[in-house]
Every structure is written in C-alpha cells, then in structure tokens.
Sequence to fold (207 residues):
Amino acid sequence: MQSYPSKLLEQAVNELAKLPGIGRKTALRMALHLLKRNVLEVESLGTAIIKMRNNIIYCTACRNISDQELCAICANPKRDPSLICVVEDIRDVMAIENTGQFMGVYHVLGGIISPMDGIGPGDLHIDKLISRLSSGSVTEIILALPTTIEGDTTNFYLYRKLTEFNLKITIIARGVSIGDELEHTDEVTLGRSILNRTPYESVLSRK
Fold:
C-alpha cells in the first residue's frame, strides 16, 4: 500500500486515478507535476474542467457536444443535412472531421448495442434518428460504427429500422480493420473509407 506524506496529495491521486487509462503511478506523477506548477495555472485547469462539465450541452439535432443548442456542424449552412453519418460517440465525429472528406451532418448514438454490457437499443439515441427522418429530407444514411461484432449488430438493427424509409443506406468501406475503433484509424484510411462507402445490402449479401 502506497504511503503518502500528505492526505491532500493522496486525495488528488485517488481522484486522478479514476480517469480512464490512468493508473496510480501515473496519477501520482500528474499530481506532483501540478503541485510544482503556478497556482494560477492549476486554478485555470480546474476552472476549465468545471466549466466543461457544467456548461457543455448536447446538440438538439445530432447529440454532438456543443456550447449552443445546435452544434457548429448542424448550424453550418455549408453542410448537407440530407446526408447523415451515424457514429458511436463524439470521438468518432472528431475523427471523421479531421479527414476533411465529409460535408454532411452526424447522428451520435451514444454507444452501440452490447448485450454483454447490458446496452440495448433503448439505451441509444435511435428514436431521435428515426424522428429526423420523418421530414423526408434525408436521402442517405452512412453507417460508420466500429468494425466489431457489437458494431455489426448495431448496423443490422439500424438497417432493419431504416428500410421503411425511402433513402440510401451505406456503410463505410472496410479499409478500417476489423475490430478497429474509428478514433484510432489514420485520417487517410478513414477519409477513403467514407468516400468509398458501399450499399449496406452488399455487406448482407456476403454473409
């Protein structure tokens, strides 16, 4: 059991160690680094985190994070609202935006179907997606979910839900390796996978 010379240091380490991918040794290094920094710098960091947690909201259209009711992408008149790219979470929006190859809009599901983790369709923002299609202005849905079993399960579920609408349903090209998360795919590969997307029906015919 690690012994700390200060209860305040121990408390800081305990909180930092709750972050994903941060073990106790890394948390200790971070805490000691902050201890060496100027008080104003540390206060600035704390204030930024508190403001982020309290003031960031979710776009009422796509569920991307935003500072306003509509995110910058949905509010951009240069984006094509008839083309919706469906992604798992906000990191995927950021990854695809970094490619500069997509000029449509997004829909963030907030997860993927995973029975092992107790996540079903009702836990995702699928109903919100369906409601966006009721206007009839959407012409294509791009499924850009992880190339995992859970991602494929979610793709198939969405395909079954979306077939009642008169629109094109495509999936990103499998230049993204099986099991890959979009955020870990290089920008060139991800950009090409968007541009070379294929009809979802072609994926079903190969199974």
Remarks:
- The radius of gyration is 21 Å.
